Structure formats: structure tokens, C-alpha cells
Amino acid sequence: MVELHKLLKRQLKKHLGLTEIPDNLKEFINAIDEAYKQNDDDKLMVERSLELSSKELSEMIAELRRAQVELLQREKMASIGQLAAGIAHEINNPLGYINSNINTLNKYINKYLMALSLYKEMTNIPIYNPTEEYANMITKINSFEKQNKFEYINKDIKELMDESTEGLHRIVKIVQGLKDFSRIDFAQDFVDYELNQGVESTLLIANNSIKYTVKLVLQLSDLPVIKALGGEINQVILNIIINAVHAINSTGKHGTIRIATYENDDSVVLEVEDSGIGIPEESLLKIFDPFYTTKKVGEGTGLGLSIAYDIIVNKHKGKIDVRSEIGKGTTFILQIPKVRD
């Protein structure tokens, strides 16, 4: 038998019992053989193409992931940038009175050093032979203490130290809040995360934006520790809180933000409810779309909620829901699984 495609050769022998091709079938068999060989060539080409496409797809996915991480970081930096003035104010306020207190304490120290010089001068007078000089020195010291209000200074020093210590603790708390908010130590790792702590550290960052026009109501329940991308969850919380503040400010009056945490059978849950202007029904279907925003130009990128959706739903396999009514406000509900699949 002529050299035919291996599969065709087996089929001819198995089904027709042919070991030699009759003259009247040669043209037909050769055409089939050519088709088999062409199919092999096409198959090889497709496999090579698929291999190349698979490699290109992998590279594209890796590039998309890098772009997504960069986009998330930019959005996070944009959020912190928008709040930078407020954060600076929160730090500068205690720094201001700490600086003032230190200046006052420095003046008090100088007065104590002057008093110490008087006490030292008095020690040079022989104790065993009290004289008029000794009595005069006592009078001089008493006069100095009275003139410089040492009785008031002794009381004020403690108050200044207590106030300064409180201010330093406030600054440390804000800096720690920034660190907890960003979770820079575990940027892309699922690690132990406490939702309540995430809420509290995020509120520290947003405090200056909240405190002037918003009454904050916290209803935080005891929750289990979960595994999560803590910095990204905090970014979602911040975005929703700032949106709530903007919604309230748009009403032109003071409002309320209620933040509640609780758990159900499968998830830890966060609710953020505001008394803002509400979201139109036609916008509710689009708010998680990239670049969709109802804010004025320059007030938002339109990426915040789309990134929030990606973080909660795609990365954490959770849920994010929203309900709203014009003129009454909006509630966002986040559910994050207690256990990762």
C-alpha cells in the first residue's frame, strides 16, 4: 500500500480490508489522504496559535492585575489626598497646643532655675549662726515665689503636662490610624482583619470631614476576626463614608450617618446609612459602573464604587447592596464572608 496517512491506512484496513488500493479508488483515496494531512497541518497551526494566544492572554491578565493594583493605589491616594488638609488639621491642632505648652513650660523652668539659684545662695549662709542676712534671704525667696506666682505654676505644670500628653496620644492615634487604614504591612495578603477596628481607623482619617456637619451614630457589635485584604476593605469603608458626607452636605443642613456592624450565619456585615439627598432610581443601576459619577466635575473620579464592588464581590466573594430614597438618604450594606472558600 502506498504511504498514506496513518489513521486513513488503519481505517481502510479495518473497515474495507484493503491492503492495496484498487486503481478505480486511487484518486478518491488520495483526495481523502490529502484532506487528512491538511487537517493535521491545520490542527498543528491551531495548537501553535492557541499556545501563543494562551501566552498572550496570560501576559494580558498579569498586566491587567498590575494595572488594577496601580488603579486601586491611585484611588486610595486620591482619597487620602482629598482628606489631607483635614488630616493635617487633626494633627496640627494638638501640635499647636503642645508647642504652646512647651514654650510655657520652658518659661517655668527658667523661673525654677532662678529660684534654685536663690536657694543655693541661701545655703552659703551658716545655719548655726542665723543672721539678718539669712532672714533677708528668706524674705527675698518668698517675695520671688510670690511675684512669679509659684503657687499657680505648681498647679499649671501638671495641667500642661496632662494636656500635652493627651495631645501626643491623639497624634499617635491618628498616625496609627493611617497605618491601620492603609495596612501597608500586608498590602496584597489575606490576613486577620477586624471590621470594627477597620471602621474606627477609617473614621480617624475622615474625622475632620465628618465632625462639622454630621452626627455620627456607631452601633458596633462584637465580631469574629476574618481573613481579608484589610487595607482594601478600609478603602471601601472610607469611600462610602465620604460619599455619605457629600450627600449630606448637598442638602445644605446637618445630617446623620449611622454605622452598624453585625454578623449573620455566613458573613460579617457593615451598614452605612446617611440622611443625605438620596440616589435617583435610574442611577442605582449604574453606580457600580466604572467612571460613572453623579458628582460635579473635579469632585470624583467615578472609580470609587466600581473599585469597592471589585474588592467586596470579586476579591472577597462577598456582597454589596444599596437602597436609597430621594430626600431621605442612602444605605450601603457590605457582607464579607467569615471563611474564605
From TrEMBL:
Catalytic activity reads: ATP + protein L-histidine = ADP + protein N-phospho-L-histidine
Please identify the protein, giving its name as recorded: histidine kinase
Kindly give the InterPro entries that the UniProt entry links to this protein: HATPase_C_sf, HATPase_dom, His_kinase_dom, HisK_dim/P_dom, HisK_dim/P_sf, Sig_transdc_His_kin-like_C
Q: Which UniProt keywords apply?
A: Kinase, Phosphoprotein, Transferase, Two-component regulatory system
| Single annotated GO MF | phosphorelay sensor kinase activity
Q: What class of enzyme is it?
A: transferase
PANTHER family registered for this protein in UniProt: HISTIDINE KINASE, SENSOR HISTIDINE KINASE
Report the transmembrane regions from the record: none
